[in-house]
Amino acid sequence: MGSGEPITCVPLVEEHLPARVEWLNDPRVRAGITISFQASLEDTVTWFRKAAEDETRADFACVSQDGSPVSMFGITDIADGSAALYLYVAPDLHAKGIGRLTMVHLLKEAQRLGLTEVRLEVKAENTSAVRLYERFGFHVTGEVPGEAKLKMTAVVR
Ligand SMILES: CC(C)(COP(=O)(O)OP(=O)(O)OC[C@H]1O[C@@H](n2cnc3c(N)ncnc32)[C@H](O)[C@@H]1OP(=O)(O)O)[C@@H](O)C(=O)NCCC(=O)NCCS
């Protein structure tokens, strides 16, 4: 996967879940996100079936031209035109521009859902994520009390 190669983002399906479990258990992904449990395929399938029925969220996988997953993102807690989001890139593919490509799709999806604002929380030490979000128009609105995390918000245009 080179930096000039396009990606396609599609709604998450069960065949993406083994990659999701692998990534969620990878220390390079866990360093950036807040997750305390070890992910298992069984629990993730159970989570997915519930999530797929949940109208307040939409989960996606982005794949490279050969069909292998390169990133996943989700728009969650959708209410009153605003929502939270998450994003992670396959651990072997960090720092190759996939986060940037994924954000383009994420914000298009947010627009398609009619959202006017998206928000997230990010570890203050997660420089690549903070930089990525700032590049896409997010700004820091505060800190999460008691955690070394920033709250960030962007207007969807
Ligand atoms: C954070 C994450 C989504 C960024 O995606 P990525 O594909 O690795 O990053 P990109 O190559 O698109 O680069 C995004 C920006 O971060 C910078 N960057 C990338 N890796 C970096 C590093 N190791 N240190 C500092 N900056 C870095 C890039 O230079 C780029 O900034 P620029 O546009 O100003 O040049 C990805 O690394 C990831 O999934 N990390 C683990 C999970 C996570 O942290 N998710 C976000 C939680 S809020």
Compact description:
The protein has 157 residues and is an alpha+beta fold.
Can you walk me through this structure?
With 157 residues, the chain is of the alpha+beta class. The protein has a single domain (8-155), classed as 3-Layer(aba) Sandwich (Aminopeptidase). The chain is 31% helix and 31% strand. It contains 5 helices and 7 strands. The protein has a 7-stranded mixed β-sheet, with helices on both faces. A hairpin with a 2-residue loop joins strand 3 and strand 4. Helix 1 (17-24) crosses helix 3 (41-53). The protein is globular, with a radius of gyration of 15 Å. The mean pLDDT is 95. Coenzyme A (COA) binds next to strand 4, helix 4, strand 5 and helix 5. Coenzyme A binds at residues 29, 32-33, 87-89, 94-100, 120, 122, 126-129, 131-132, 135.
Task: Furnish the topology, listing elements before pairings.
Elements: E1 8-11, H1 17-24, H2 27-30, H3 41-53, E2 58-63, E3 69-79, E4 82-89, H4 98-112, E5 117-123, H5 127-135, E6 139-143, E7 149-155
Parallel strand pairs: 4-5
Antiparallel strand pairs: 1-2, 2-3, 3-4, 5-7, 6-7
Helix pairs in contact: 1-3
Chemical compounds bound to the protein: coenzyme A
According to CATH, what is the class? Alpha Beta
CATH-defined topology: Aminopeptidase
| Count of the separate structural domains | 1
Largest sheet features: 7 strands, mixed
Spatial strand arrangement across the major sheet: 1-2-3-4-5-7-6
Our Rg estimate from Cα atoms comes to 15 Å
How far apart are the first and last residues' alpha carbons, in Å? 29 Å
* Helical content (DSSP H or I, runs of 4+): 25-40%
Total strands: the figure is: 7
Q: What is the tally of helical segments?
A: 5
Principal-axis shape equals: globular
Uncertain spans: none
- Arithmetic mean pLDDT: 95
Elements, N to C (H/E) = EHHHEEEHEHEE
CATH superfamily: Gcn5-related N-acetyltransferase (GNAT)
Annotated CATH architecture: 3-Layer(aba) Sandwich
What is the structural class? alpha+beta
Share of residues in strands: 25-35%
